[in-house]
Amino acid sequence: MEGLIMRHYPAPDYHERRAAAVSNELAGRTLQPKITDADRRRAAARRINEDRRIEREANRL
User: Fold this and answer.
1) Contact by Cβ (8 Å): 24, 31
2) Is a pLDDT exceeding 60 seen at residue 6?
3) C-alpha torsion 33→11→7→57, nearest 10
């Protein structure tokens, strides 16, 4: 159920981050993406999943 809910609703700070990005863009400031701890956790989880997939495929041969 958690995944289903997250699919339809943005991250809790989405609107705040989007407003800051639009404000910076209109002011002519460079757009620097703000990397949150949640972003780092998701990236680490993706790397782990990808490593496991590669390992599974290597073991099939």
Assistant:
1) yes
2) no
3) 50
